[in-house]
Amino acid sequence: FLSQVDSTNAGRVLASDAAVFLKKSGLTDLVLGKIWDLADTDGKGILNKQEFFVALRLVACAQNGLDVSLSSLNLPVPPPRFTDTSSPLLLSGTASSDLPWAVKLEDKVKYDAIFDSLNPVNGLLSGDKVKPVLLNSKLPVDILGRVWELSDIDRDGMLDRDEFAVAMFLVYCALEKEPVPMSLPAALVPPSKRKPLSVPGAMPLLPSATKESHQSLPPVGILAAKTPLTQ
């Protein structure tokens, strides 16, 4: 990974090069910003070899739902995954299309009933329709923002039936005091959203990782409860 961003073997990685490379992890800009701040210890905008390894390790932590903090550095995690076919690590592991979906069938039936009750248009719910349901959970707005960001897998500002199920699953996990992951675990990506890469046995982490997320709603914007909500 270091040789991909430090082609001249200078032993240092510039912020601009690191940003382009780390974006391939599929993590949100918010999380990547936090990772950079922790790795770039003296704020000089350049990472040395050791600091770059810290950044990679934190990416791996975030991809596996662990807290992005220096205390996570010693936890056992698989290597980070990047959506780049030249990455050696995309060739390892089983295809995520073989993973069973984390949302159980009986729960999916319940989530579908809530979805239908919200009057979806063309099989999609807008942020405005999902917002009251999320706020109803009484979870902190920053947590709900992350739930929205993770569940809007194709970054179109709307949730379809499967994405809504992911949102509900994450809300119920949070209500059970389980931490909401920083990036969507492969097992939570709905089978309908899993795009196998052309590499045999490859393991795509996030189908939307290669798309820019400009169209996605700002996570807090969708949930800012300044206006009175009408059911």
Entry summary:
The chain has 231 residues and is mainly α. The chain has helices at residues 2-5, 15-23, 29-39, 49-63, 105-117, 127-136, 141-151, 161-175, 219-223; strands at 12-14, 46-48, 124-126, 158-160.
Task: Reconstruct the topology from this structure.
Blueprint: H1 2-5, E1 12-14, H2 15-23, H3 29-39, E2 46-48, H4 49-63, H5 105-117, E3 124-126, H6 127-136, H7 141-151, E4 158-160, H8 161-175, H9 219-223
Antiparallel strand pairs: 1-2, 3-4
Protein name: EPS15 factor
Keywords: Calcium, Metal-binding
Domain EF-hand: 27-62, 139-174
List descriptors.
231 residues, mainly alpha, Recoverin, domain 1, two-stranded antiparallel ribbon, 9 helices, 5% strand, elongated, disordered C terminus, EF_hand_dom
Describe the structure.
With 231 residues, the protein is mostly helical. Among the domains are: 2-72, EF-hand (Recoverin, domain 1, Orthogonal Bundle), CATH 1.10.238; 105-193, Recoverin, domain 1. Helix content is 40%, strand content 5%. It is built from 9 helices and 4 strands, in the order H-E-H-H-E-H-H-E-H-H-E-H-H. The chain has a two-stranded antiparallel sheet with strand order 1-2. Helix 3 runs antiparallel to helix 4 (49-63) and helix 7 packs antiparallel against helix 8 (161-175). The model is unreliable at 85-95 and 197-231 (pLDDT under 50). This is EPS15 factor. Keywords: Calcium, Metal-binding. Residues 1-83, 107-195 form the EH domain.
